[in-house]
Amino acid sequence: MIGVDQENGLVSRLKSLVTKFPGASEIGETGKTANARDVARATGEELRDLGISLDFAPVADVNINPRNPVIGPRAYGSDPGKVAAMVGAAVDGFHAAGVASVAKHFPGHGDTSVDSHTGLPVITHSKTQWRKLDAPPFRAAIAHDVDAIMSAHVVMPKLDPSGDPATLSHRILTGLLREELGFDGVISTDALDMAGVRKKYGDAEVAVRAVLAGADMLLMPPNLPKAYDAVLDAVKSGRISERRLDESVLRILRLKEKRGVFGPIRTDPGALKSAAHHKIAERVFAAVR
User: Fold this and answer.
1) 249 vs 76, 191, 216, CA distance in Å?
2) Is the pTM of this model over 0.90?
3) End-to-end distance of the chain based on CA atoms, in angstroms?
4) Which member of 27, 68, 146, 247 lies 3.0 to 4.6 Å from 141 by CB, making a disulfide possible if both were Cys?
5) In contact, 10 and 18? CB cutoff 8 Å
6) Active-site positions?
């Protein structure tokens, strides 16, 4: 299964190849969830044409901090209810294209003034505030059967007083995401080469703790052999149970089956930047208030 960060807008890894669509904040400004769905569907169709079956999108963060250096225009807005509606529509759009969708960054990266690529943000929301401000878009994504949810390298001490980032927090990934929100899809870490997750533990220990926290996919470990060997050693020693590992393997296999990875992968690069997709882009750009 090949995945990509194709959010459109600020984060557009394939921008030289695919139709230029508006980013999340611009779509949010239109106020119409149909625009989020249509852009996600068209984006997904172009990804399928390239043989890509998973998109690390949409961003489900509620950008309530104007000084946020890492989310900003990547979010649909600052209103939890409106962001939730947009996220649900985007998930529907990706699914209509047959592409797996990943809501990010759980439990919420919207109220930070530190970039988790270079530091470790701390968010002081109480659990009540989290349920009101950060959780609604993730609840919506789950209600729309989102395939995967990506963790955030942020510390939320009112949710977990350990000081560990959410990516390594059993209380957050298992306690909140699995048990409270009822999500049984794939949990992916954010990139493990980011400073936010590397500050407290070494790269080997980070991989093990992410699995113990509840993560199924370890994204971009800076040293793959080291991460692989650490997880394998943890299973051999019994620190990670075989049952725990099997749970992750089963979730990933179900995801691949649902999105057609076990069948023939048909690509059509010549269909990129179609007239129909350009019309969608033009219509949404014109609707931005």
Assistant:
1) 32, 19, 7
2) yes
3) 38
4) 146
5) no
6) 117, 190
